[in-house]
Amino acid sequence: MESTFFSIQSSSIHFVEEHKSALQWAGLTAKYQQIFSHHPAKTWLLYEPDSFIFSAIFMALLSAEKSVVLPQNGQPEHIKHVKESVEASVGDVSLQPTVPSTVDYQAGPHIELRIPLSSNIAFYTSGSTGVPKVINKQYKLLQREVDVLETEFASKVSGSTFLSTVPHQHIYGLLFKMLWPMTKGHRLVSQAFEYPEQLATKIKLAKLEKVTIVSSPAQLHRMALDNPLLPVKEQVETIFSSGGPLDANKNVSLQKSLTCEIVEVFGSTETGGIGWRHKHHPNDNDWQAFNNIKLGYQPNCDLLAISSPYIEQDVYYADDRVEIVADDRFRVLGRADSVVKIEEKRISLDEVQDRLKQHELVDDAFVVVIGTTRRKLAALIVLNGAGQQASQKLKKIELNHLFRDFLSNWYEALLLPKNIDIQSNYPIMPEEN
């Protein structure tokens, strides 16, 4: 019969930090477990920026059979809103919590925690209406995903130390930064790293021989321009990226310069992980579905439908347009809400952006709809090095024609951007009067 609890022993947790050990974690967790076990509140808001303290509180709450609510951030108005739906709160003193995250405790001895698999964790995430929505997950769904991550990527992370630049308040950071290394016996640094320079310093000072970095597209895009990890590239084994699209050219460039693998993970708070990919070339657009995900289309359209052990319902209807190229492989064509009508013709803003990014002179692009009575597309294009050199020789109107001609390989004239703004480090030749 399947167990109703998940057991975790503090002796299997390996922190690689000064003044942060498994025994200290055990003492802190035991202290909080005692507090929560004697408190009548069942539903707790948890917000604590320090990942070491957060992980202890999180596990203590669950083992005390409490429900955990994770706000998006610590902003006062958001916290005020979330507090309306909970019975108590714990964490940073700025929240005026029921229980602060500054309790006195003593290290050790080791403890074993029994976490009910039915324990509920509520995530606040951005909703399509602009109002944050709540996604509820039982702990068993999170642990199932961790089990699959370990099975899929064990060879990539074995013997490495996990470091992260993403927050633990959201599902990606909670899974990859905390639950995966803690419950599977991998070494981890709980400290949050805001800048890649901090990562490089930590790798050097701690003399880490092999590291797995959990990061985001925004961090990696900045790193592609100025990469402080180059002096420690021999130690960087694998980088995970999720939360949004990672530019294909920057992806491949970073892998070459760091001689590492970048694994992109596709999914959402609602669905958990759906697929992953490791690009060898910028045009490698296929995603590999995780082996327990069943792919399909929604009725009469190209929107994704999945069956997954990470969600409660039998079939989940996603907002992503896809092309399923095999039972376990798919391509993402853009979000449903990125599809707009121009002159009664449907076009995906995401798709146009991706096309522009494929141009040899383009580093990044952003496409929007402008106009009210007559809608049209407008594009902001950021030039790469070759594009900036070209901008010294070509007039703005010539560059605009160049990009429109390129897009005309896929789109008819009325769908081409009518307004194009170009960013370059060099003055662009003015148009003649």
From TrEMBL:
Annotated TM spans: none
Annotated Pfam families: AMP-binding
Domain spans labelled AMP-dependent synthetase/ligase: 123-287
InterPro entries given in the database record: AMP-bd_C_sf (IPR045851), AMP-dep_synth/lig_dom (IPR000873), ANL_N_sf (IPR042099)
Entries under PANTHER family matching the protein: ENZYME, PUTATIVE (JCVI)-RELATED (PTHR45398:SF1), PTHR45398
Protein name: AMP-binding protein
Organism: Paraglaciecola aquimarina
